[in-house]
Amino acid sequence: MTVQILRKKFTVGQYHQMIESGILTDRDRVELIQGDIIEMSSVGKRHAACVDRLNELFVLKLATKSLIRVQSPIRLSDNSEPQPDVSILKRRDDFYEGGHPTPTEIWALIEVFDSTIDFDREVKIPIYAQDNISEVWLINLNDSLIECYRQPSSTGYQQLQIFNRGESLTFQSFPNIAVNVDHIFS
Fold first, then answer.
1. Residue 147 belongs to domain spanning
2. Does pTM surpass 0.85?
3. What is the number of structural domains in the chain?
4. Coil, helix or strand for 30?
5. Which three-class secondary structure state does DSSP give residue 144?
């Protein structure tokens, strides 16, 4: 006898109701991915240090051109509200108090991983592509490299470039501002 397991998918609205009613709290490290409430992995020392380096680096280089958010939600669709490690956003006077950033307001996203590689590559990256996020960087702490995804489509990103130590890369939206890979892994 086959047992069918039913899963309840949630919308962003339902997810926010759970937060507002106290079902989910600040202590719950979760994000909404394609209707599923996913527990986020804990942040280790290497991961936290890398995110802090990225934040400092991007604030120094991009502060007048964009808003840098760290581990804060973005609104992709009615069933996905992930929390990338770093978001490079279009500036808004209200600093997004009126609502989480949507794809048209996102210059680029950055995910840092040491243990979540499969989830980031197989789940988050395809979602970002489907929602037309123009650029995503995956910071690979294990191999000290950056995977840069560009040219989103409904089937995934059409361009992937790998950047190693000793190399520099730029954001598509800010081609005159180079980021040295070594500064991310120092």
1. 43-185
2. yes
3. 1
4. strand
5. coil
